[in-house]
Amino acid sequence: MNRIIRKCRFISFIELNAMYMTCFITLLAAHCLLVSSCPEDKNPLNQVMSVSTSLSFVEEQVITPENEVEQFQLLAAVEDSYEGVVVDMNDHQPLDSEVLTSLLRASMSQWKQKGKRGVWIKLPIKLSNLVDAAVKEGFRYHHAEPDYLMLVHWIPETVDTLPPNASHRVGIGAFVMNSKREVLVVQEVSGFFRDTGVWKLPTGVVNEGEDIFAAAVREVKEETGIETEFVEILAFSQSHEEFFRKSDLFFVCMLEPHSFDIQKQNLEIAAAQWMPIEDYAAQPFVKQNKLFNDIAQICLAKSDKDYTGFTPLGTTTSSGKANYLYLNNHDMVKLLTSSTDQH
């Protein structure tokens, strides 16, 4: 009796396995039929089958046309809006150059297959040892900041359309005049005007993310201690090859003083005072230098109320960011403000 039971169990096991095998063969046949009918670019054999990500790497398993499974470790990247990818290596632990080379070659191959164009690598200063390895793989410098270097590479064999680095530096000059027709002027400790005896308007550079009018108020406060309120942009100039091959935009800003007791900054300013505007404009250097003379004449015209500058109007960009539109017509400012209020 026991032999009969064991025999029946064995027969049942064989039948069950046969059933499973039949189902597997049926599913496999259906899968092969699906694969053969797909276009090459949609073929599941060429698609990523599984992806696991971390802050530093992406591991991809790909089935090759030879039905072999290959696993690649790639650099983690975020797609941009221009068919490119951005790799931020700030979260990477220290890497060896050979490891980066291997990762770059595997990653570039995948990005090329996916039709990507520009590749951006943000390399923090702690990984500066990897610059040489990246350059040897075809990357070039784009720009540098105090804490990172940006490297770029154009993949297609077409014209490189990656946008260049920022081309301009933005500076301000502050025209501040009191009720006595005296203008706020300074002499600098260093730079081109050092020990020249020339009295000049307070000047400075606009910081990243800082509005022009805010920079003018800040610079006057830092250099002279005078509290001011922005009024207008009187004029601006553009020059080239000024600062490490960058172009320069310089905005002459009119400010209204709200304090008058000068407390100069000793680090940058040798002297500061209120000077009659006519005396400022009559300085030999100002008279002989056309740009300085033109600015002085504009300031004189504004002091006589014969000149209208550019007034800031708060607005927003298409993406919703706040910014300022500078207009030289007070009536137009009122008109636009009224129109905005009605909406």
From TrEMBL:
E.C. numbers: 3.6.1.-
Protein name per UniProt: Putative hydrolase
Residue ranges constituting the Nudix hydrolase domain according to the UniProt record: 167-299
Superkingdom in the source lineage: Eukaryota
Organism: Rosa chinensis
Keyword Acyltransferase: no
A Pfam family reported for this protein in Swiss-Prot or TrEMBL: NUDIX
Family listed: Belongs to the Nudix hydrolase family.
GO terms, molecular function: ADP-ribose diphosphatase activity; metal ion binding; NAD binding; NADH pyrophosphatase activity
CDD domains: NUDIX_ASFGF2_Nudt6 (cd04670)
Keywords in alphabetical order: Hydrolase, Metal-binding
